[in-house]
């Protein structure tokens, strides 16, 4: 038998004691049908709660049946309201409320229901009561013809009006004598503009009638004290307002406490579908896209204001202590949970749960709260709420204060079924621990004043300029930074070269447009200051990038920032899931940009901190680019198809060329791609604005380029280069599979086949991708004339040398024996062997005609130049010049290239270039002839 089918008598696990034994006996005598543990439960309840004693005696006959199946009885109470006539409804609501209050209290006191079940039952009854009252009020408006265009069919959805349950009601956490907080809205889109004012007046009347029906005290009592003051600007707005007006208010004037309130918001009566749509429009207001550590100070200030207003300052003393608002109370646990949710909920939708205990659980699971702290706060929350219920059960009073008298504490301990001294000891211990666990989060101890600059920075006037910077001009930013300043200066003073670290940090700070959010992030996570000092010391250029994109620091706090690289498949799946959850196209593009920046930053930090070597980082940057294209390509197609129909035929694939195809990118790489499509025999698309297949795919490709390169609020994703497509800039931006094959077989130059050795499909349908790859491998396998290939390569090399000269002696890519030279030679090796190998090192090692010593020399040189390239691009976009870099940058490049103390970067560079150039010169020397470099097939 399931618990909900079992009688209450069989589920009792604890019993209250009768504080007034004679009243307990009177209660027991009023229910002669009760026996055993059930009779003891009723006796203990009536002997300690005058309010419940009266209910037991008044509802004894109903209670005899209800205790047999408590859940069924609650369901019947709620469902009965829906069929009650208008004249009888006010009385029926009050009778149902007192019966619900009695049965819920007995299931609570007897331990038959958990706290979650108790608060859920209270909330579901509140939902049913407010739905019944709202329907009745709206029905009267409709029958009087006061709600434009509405009929009786609109009564269940209240003609487009909805009540949003806020606070504890929204989270199914109502307390025993709770009032209910409602925001009443109507969907103005259901009405003609000319009818707007009449409709609003009708909804205002209905709201007032509903509230009065629930709130007014009659001879039968009341239903729920109803508070409508959480609506926008309640002093000047009507009790029911249009959704559009509410949305405008929150977008322009909404405050942190209102964001926190909406964490628990839930449509509870009326047009719940419209209510759900309204809450969805508020999602960007409630859940910020970046980590919002500034919410901590907002919540802390709110706590202080509440304490000041209620006179709740001072140490914890039990007599009269407010279990809700006092130190260590319920509100501190709720604020702690909601603030943590506000901080990170914009980035992680799984944190957007309404319940406090549920919120603590998911915060612990996601690493935002330690497991032991979450478990302790959850246990304290349950205990606090249980005590709160017992305090309220005594006289059905909306109070949260512990008793002030000995008699009151004795009565409370009887209702709790505990010894008084044990109860007081447990209360003191739990309140103290809650305060200790939460106070440090809201008001961390100051790092300590720094009266003067660290010795290493003495004499610098740089810190004196900081108050003039844009990020510090707001009063709040200045206050937070003043608390951070001693720690920042202390850590700068501990850098290897403090003065240069200070200059680098100053460059970051001067470029920061705003400071509140970032400074709040640093204050809550001081370890980020160390990371920032490291980054700016090594790369002032990267520091300036961080000033413009400070939100990337969010990723460091996520918990797995320093974990091993997840790989392309995991990245693609993560981005695809986030894109699926966001329906607006432009927001999808901005989301992709934010996501990409954070992962890009992660690779850079891993490289700087030595968690990745140059080869790993190159692969990681390529994984990121491929995952972005693979996840975004279907999104672009779906958006394009809205107007022009689904892709004709088999669709299109994006082929990565050059470094993307070889899966080796650096921090500033653009993406070389071509698009190949297969329309089969389909001549045009089938959308509302159909396009010929060739035009369709050309414009679809342009849409992808725009999606990747357009400067949006979050910047660009990548620059795209399409020049490696057939016929280069003269050819169409997308090529059909048939045309691509024909061109490669009959018209392509040798250099185009060399480029094809590195080609790799990175996005698009798998079947078409397999066909493209099969053609590539088959085509490249046909080259076996080493003399012809190397002759062409020799001529290409000469033209490149004539057209491009290295900008500086430190050039890693261009020049004899450097990266591009070695890559070209490796592509030739791949083409000659006919094995279509993409990676430079593998291609060199598999060439039978290249001896081991030569292959090793080229491979080592390539590794050195790649390390110099990826490190240099991370440090600066102005080119590699160790002489103009700070010592941090030089040390980073030396470590990355494996340069020992016994040699300099310049010596290693010249040595590798010379050795590699000599090898390539020797193998190409006999093929450096003149002639037509065009090859047909």
UniProtKB/TrEMBL annotation:
GO terms for molecular function: nucleotidyltransferase activity. InterPro entries: GlnE, GlnE_rpt_dom, NT_sf, PII_UdlTrfase/GS_AdlTrfase. Keywords: ATP-binding, Magnesium, Multifunctional enzyme, Nucleotide-binding, Nucleotidyltransferase, Transferase. Residues 49-280, 532-773 form the Glutamate-ammonia ligase adenylyltransferase repeated domain. The keyword ATP-binding applies. It holds the Pfam family GlnD_UR_UTase. Residues 301-442, 796-924 form the PII-uridylyltransferase/Glutamine-synthetase adenylyltransferase domain. This is Glutamine-synthetase adenylyltransferase. It comes from Thalassococcus lentus.
């Amino acid at each position: 038998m399931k618990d909900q089918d079992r009688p209450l008598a069989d589920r009792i696990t604890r019993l209250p004691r009768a504080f007034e034994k004679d009243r307990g006996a009177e209660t027991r005598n009023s229910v002669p049908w009760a026996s055993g543990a059930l009779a003891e439960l009723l006796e203990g309840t009536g002997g300690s709660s005058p309010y419940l004693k009266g209910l037991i005696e008044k509802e004894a006959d109903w209670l005899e049946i209800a205790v047999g199946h408590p859940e069924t009885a609650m369901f019947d109470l709620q469902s009965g309201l829906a069929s009650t006539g208008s004249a009888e409804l006010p009385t029926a609501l009050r009778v149902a409320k007192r019966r619900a209050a009695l049965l819920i209290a007995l299931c609570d006191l007897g331990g038959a229901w958990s706290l979650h079940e108790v608060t859920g039952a209270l909330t579901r009854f509140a939902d049913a009561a407010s739905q019944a009252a709202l329907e009745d009020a709206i029905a009267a408006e409709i029958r009087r013809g006061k709600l434009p265009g509405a009929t009786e069919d609109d009564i269940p959805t209240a003609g487009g009006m909805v009540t949003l349950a806020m606070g504890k009601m929204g989270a199914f956490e109502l307390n025993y004598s709770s009032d209910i907080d409602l925001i009443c809205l109507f969907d103005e889109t259901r009405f003609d503009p000319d009818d707007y004012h009449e409709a609003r007046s009708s909804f205002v009347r209905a709201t007032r009638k509903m509230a009065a029906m629930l709130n007014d005290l009659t001879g039968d009592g009341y239903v729920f004290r109803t508070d409508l003051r959480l609506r926008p600007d309640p002093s000047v707005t009507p009790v029911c307002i249009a959704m559009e007006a509410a949305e405008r208010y929150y977008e322009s004037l909404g405050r942190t406490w209102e964001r926190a309130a909406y964490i628990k918001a839930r449509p509870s009566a009326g047009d719940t579908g419209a209510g759900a749509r309204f809450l969805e429009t508020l999602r960007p207001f409630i859940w910020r896209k970046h980590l919002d550590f500034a919410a901590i100070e907002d919540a802390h200030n709110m706590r202080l204001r509440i304490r000041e207003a209620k006179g709740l300052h001072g140490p914890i003393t039990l007599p009269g202590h407010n279990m809700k608002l006092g130190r260590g109370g319920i509100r501190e646990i709720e604020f702690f949970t909601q603030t943590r949710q506000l901080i990170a909920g914009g980035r992680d939708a799984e944190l957007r749960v309404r319940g406090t205990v549920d919120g603590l659980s998911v915060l612990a699971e996601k690493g935002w709260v330690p497991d032991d702290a979450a478990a302790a706060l959850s246990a304290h929350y349950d205990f606090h709420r249980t005590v709160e219920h017992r305090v309220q059960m005594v006289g059905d009073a909306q109070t949260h204060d512990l008793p002030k008298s000995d008699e009151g504490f004795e009565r409370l301990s009887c209702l709790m079924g505990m010894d008084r001294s044990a109860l007081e000891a447990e209360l003191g211990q739990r309140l103290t621990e809650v305060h200790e666990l939460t106070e440090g989060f809201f008001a961390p101890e100051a790092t300590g004043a720094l009266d003067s600059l660290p010795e290493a920075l003495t004499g610098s006037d740089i810190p004196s300029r900081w108050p003039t910077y844009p990020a510090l001009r707001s009063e709040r930013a200045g206050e937070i930074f003043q608390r951070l300043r001693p720690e920042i200066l202390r850590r700068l003073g501990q850098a290897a070269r403090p003065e240069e670290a200070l200059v680098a940090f100053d460059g970051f700070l001067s470029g920061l447009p705003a400071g509140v959010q970032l400074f709040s992030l640093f204050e809550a996570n001081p370890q980020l200051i160390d990371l920032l000092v490291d980054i700016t010391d090594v790369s002032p250029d990267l520091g300036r990038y961080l000033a413009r994109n400070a939100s990337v620091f969010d990723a460091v706090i996520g918990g797995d920032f320093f974990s091993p690289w997840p790989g392309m498949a995991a990245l693609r799946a993560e981005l695809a899931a986030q894109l699926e959850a966001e329906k607006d196209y432009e927001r999808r593009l901005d989301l992709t940009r934010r996501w990409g920046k954070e992962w890009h930053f992660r690779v850079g930090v891993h490289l700087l901190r030595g968690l990745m070597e140059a080869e790993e980082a190159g692969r990681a940057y390529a994984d990121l680019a491929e995952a972005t294209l693979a996840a975004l390509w279907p999104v672009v197609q779906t958006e394009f198809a809205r107007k022009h129909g689904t892709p004709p035929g088999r669709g299109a694939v994006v082929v990565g060329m050059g470094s993307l195809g070889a899966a080796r990118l650096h921090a500033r790489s653009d993406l070389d791609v071509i698009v190949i499509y297969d329309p089969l025999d389909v001549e045009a698309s089938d959308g509302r604005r159909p396009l010929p297949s060739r035009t369709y795919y050309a414009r679809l490709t342009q849409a992808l380029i725009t999606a990747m390169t357009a400067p949006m609020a979050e910047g660009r994703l990548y620059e795209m280069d399409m020049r490696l497509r057939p016929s280069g800039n003269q050819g169409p931006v997308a090529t059909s599979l048939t045309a691509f094959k024909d061109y490669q077989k009959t018209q392509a130059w040798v250099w185009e086949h060399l480029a094809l050795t590195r080609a790799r499909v990175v996005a698009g349908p798998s079947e078409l991708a397999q066909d493209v790859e099969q053609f590539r491998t088959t085509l490249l396998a046909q080259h076996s004339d080493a003399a012809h290939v190397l002759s062409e390569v020799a001529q290409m090399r000469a033209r490149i040398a004539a057209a491009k000269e290295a900008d500086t002696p430190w050039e890693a890519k261009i020049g004899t024996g450097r990266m591009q030279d070695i890559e070209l030679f490796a592509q030739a090796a791949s083409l000659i062997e006919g094995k279509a190998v993409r990676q430079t090192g593998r291609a060199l090692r598999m060439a039978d005609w290249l001896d081991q010593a030569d292959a090793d020399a080229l491979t080592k040189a390539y590794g050195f130049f790649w390390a110099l390239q990826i490190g240099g691009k991370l440090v600066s976009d102005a080119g590699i010049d160790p002489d103009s870099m700070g010592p941090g940058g030089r040390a980073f490049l030396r470590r990355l290239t494996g340069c020992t103390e016994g040699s300099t970067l310049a010596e290693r560079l010249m040595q590798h270039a010379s050795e590699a150039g000599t090898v390539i010169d020797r193998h190409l020397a006999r093929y450096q002839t003149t002639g037509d470099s065009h090859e047909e097939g």
